[in-house]
Amino acid sequence: MSRQVVRSSKFRHVFGQPAKADQCYEDVRVSQTTWDSGFCAVNPKFVALICEASGGGAFLVLSLGKTGRVDKNAPMVCGHTAPVLDIAWCPHNDNVIASGSEDCTVMVWEIPDGGLTLPLREPVVTLEGHTKRVGIVAWHPTAQNVLLSAGCDNVILVWDVGTGAAVLTLGSDVHPDTIYSVDWSRDGALICTSCRDKRVRIIEPRKGTVVAEKDRPHEGTRPVRAVFVSDGKILTTGFSRMSERQVALWDTKHLEEPLSLQELDTSSGVLLPFFDPDTNIVYLCGKGDSSIRYFEITSEAPYLHYLSMFSSKESQRGMGYMPKRGLEVNKCEIARFYKLHERRCEPIAMTVPRKDAIHRLEEEMKKLQATVQELQKRLESLEETVQAK
User: Fold this and answer.
1) 55, 57, 68, 205: which could join 83 in a potential S-S bond, CB 3.0 to 4.6 Å?
2) How far apart are the C-alpha atoms of 344 and 25, rounded to whole Å?
3) Four-point Cα dihedral 129, 134, 136, 139, nearest 10
4) Mean pLDDT of 296-322
């Protein structure tokens, strides 16, 4: 009789715990714009949400502890003249946030401690250089005042926020079509992009050269997302030729074949990947889904291991991801998401159970297995009695 061996992992029992009703942010009008960004950005001080706004683009910034019902007249950041598409908090200053908009500009804002008391209309700096809407903004992970933006003009600009000047331009000769995603490597030495021309590129931004690229990482025509993970690997999400959602892991030095390729389901929403380098767990959140899948990445085959899935009843319109600095580690929290509903923002904590809890769970499983075996023996005994009669 073959015995199934379960892979040993510290994170096999990770589970999602949604916040109680009084810890959610109620009555927020989440943006209806059809754009594949998270619509939410979080840091240890504030949560920012892209909202519906008449006469331009706006986003709401709330102090993290200011939960409950949000006043409909709450002050917003409202300097853009068209809808906001993406927002990102600066990793070096928790009061600074960047926003990209359909008005072709990138704006950098400074939020006062304690949050806004009046609408904020004047940015610290306005970065003008794109000719079409700006859908992606991403801060450099290690260098201060360096911001990347990508627009629908197929151009990536890297800005020095201190001077307001573009220090690097990657033009349409690098990306001939719409850019779907951009991600910095952990040390900021490389960027990884996915494009509508069905190619994923690894770019050395200082030289402006493509150091590696992969044509058709996924066979489908829907958007592909790509992020850096550990040990020089990248993870992509996309669609198969039959419109099945896929996740794949690649070695940047050998992009001919994936290290791992898994098919997930047939939903239509684009999967947004969030990678935690400390635990090597990647979380996949689909827009329009009601679940968060998570996988562990290891250095040995098969490299990408499915852990579990957090499910809820309501679908998500967007998702924010808290940096590790803002987690409650004394409660064994390893990640926290901010799930956007139509009129609500709900925190979801990912927690590793303590060893004693796991031990209790395993003991209960053993008892259940013993009960099942006892019932099977009784059933066999009854069948023998019936046959004898």
Assistant:
1) 57
2) 6
3) 40
4) 91
Q: In what order do the strands lie in the sheet containing 146-151?
A: 134-139, 146-151, 156-160, 165-170
Beta carbons within 8 Å of 42's beta carbon, 6+ residues apart: 48, 64, 89, 320, 321, 322, 323, 326, 336, 338
Q: Which domain holds residue 371?
A: 360-388
> How far, in Å, CA of 229 to CA of 251, rounded?
10
Residue 357 has pLDDT above 50, yes or no: yes
Tell me, yes or no, whether 218 lies in a domain: no
Determine, yes or no, domain membership for 375.
yes
User: Is residue 138 a part of any domain in this protein?
Assistant: no
For residues 311 and 293, give the distance between their C-alpha atoms in angstroms, rounded to a whole number. 9
pLDDT tops 60 at residue 363: yes
Q: Which pLDDT belongs to residue 123?
A: 95
**Which pLDDT tens digit goes with each residue over 312-339?**
989 999 999 999 999 998 888 999 999 9
What is the rounded CA–CA span in Å between residue 182 and residue 201?
10
Q: How far is CA 18 from CA 87, 126, 209, in A?
A: 24, 37, 44
Q: Is the pTM of this model over 0.70?
A: yes
Total tally of structural domains belonging to the chain: 1
Quote the tokens at residue 56. Answer: 């331009």
The torsion defined by the Cα of 262, 267, 270 and 271, in degrees rounded to 10, comes to -40
383 within domain boundaries = yes
User: Which tens digit of pLDDT belongs to each residue from 161-209?
Assistant: 999 999 999 988 999 999 999 999 999 999 999 999 999 999 999 888 9
Listed in sequence order, the residues at least 6 apart from 33 whose beta carbon sits closer than 8 Å to its beta carbon are 50, 83, 85
